[in-house]
Amino acid sequence: MTTRAPQDVVFDTVAELFSVLSTPIRLKIISELCNGEKNVTQLLAQIDTTQPNMSQHLSTLYRAGILGRRREGTQIFYWLESQRVATLCRAVTTQVAIEIDSDEPVDDSGRLLPRGART
């Protein structure tokens, strides 16, 4: 049995985190919760999706340790458990927004074009 290098553990952990964050709706949920705790109804008012889909994504983020939750009557409230994730999401979304605002070339869906595809 070989011992894994500490850097391998770091890269594996980061890859797992990026995997959890790889869905736009999860990034929207995190963005909404940066402003404080919200229940599912409040999140649905801000994010265009169905209640079952929202619940599935909230559950994934909760299981990953990114969100905390509590029940109050029939409502479940969520909050960001990981400020590290909030900081990461803010940094990346801010940088992408700056690039989009600076007239970087984008495709029809608004995604930045890879550097090699830019003319």
Walk me through this protein's architecture.
It contains 5 helices and 3 strands. It is mostly helical. A hairpin with a 2-residue loop joins β2 (67-72) and β3 (75-80). The protein is flat, with a radius of gyration of 17 Å. The model has no long low-confidence stretch (mean pLDDT 87).
Q: Could you state the order of secondary-structure elements as H and E?
A: HHEHHEEH
The biggest beta sheet, please? 3 strands, antiparallel
Global Rg: 17 Å
Low-confidence stretches: none
Q: What topology emerges from the helices and strands here?
A:
Blueprint (H helix, E strand, L loop, with lengths): L5 H15 L3 H10 L4 E2 H7 L4 H13 L3 E6 L2 E6 L2 H19 L18
Antiparallel strand pairs: 1-3, 2-3
Short overview:
The chain is mainly α and 119 residues long. Helices cover 54% and strands 12% of the residues.
Features:
119 residues, mainly alpha, 3-stranded antiparallel sheet, 12% strand, flat
